[in-house]
Amino acid sequence: MGYIEQNLIAGETVAYRTQLHWIIFLWPAVFLIFAVIGVMGRQDYGAGALLVGLVWGLYSYIRFSSSEFGVTNRRVLIKVGFIRRHSLELLLSKVEGIGVDQGIIGRVLGYGTIIVTGTGGTKEPFRNIAAALEFRRMVQQHVASSQ
């Protein structure tokens, strides 16, 4: 059971969930490929690239597995972090806007940065979110239906 399910209130149901995009594993994979090439070619950088790739890959895996993004029939719930946790729980009635920032690669691969703006000036960006446009659509749909 994840963070979102543990923090549901009475009568609340999860309408949409997403996670971080697989793109966060790209650079660790590049370093691991360089490590394999370096080891096979008996280059000196192979061990260093392997260490960097493994550490960065582990860090990315922890980020991936400890991040949750959800929309319920009452709130937007976001939790990122394992040791140092950052969470946002915003009632749909308090959502003022939700923006999506996508570069060219993000548009092609389907990820982006969501910026949740709440009443009172709360402005929270969350990067590398899978299906960011769908997340925004679901928030807007539930905000409209709750009014």
From TrEMBL:
UniProt entry tagged with the keyword Transmembrane: yes
Coiled coil: none
Keyword line: Membrane, Transmembrane, Transmembrane helix
Top-level taxon of origin: Bacteria
Transmembrane segments: 20-39, 45-64
Residue intervals of the YdbS-like PH domain: 68-137
UniProt cross-references to PANTHER family, sorted A to Z: BLL0215 PROTEIN (PTHR37938)
Name of the molecule in the record: PH domain-containing protein
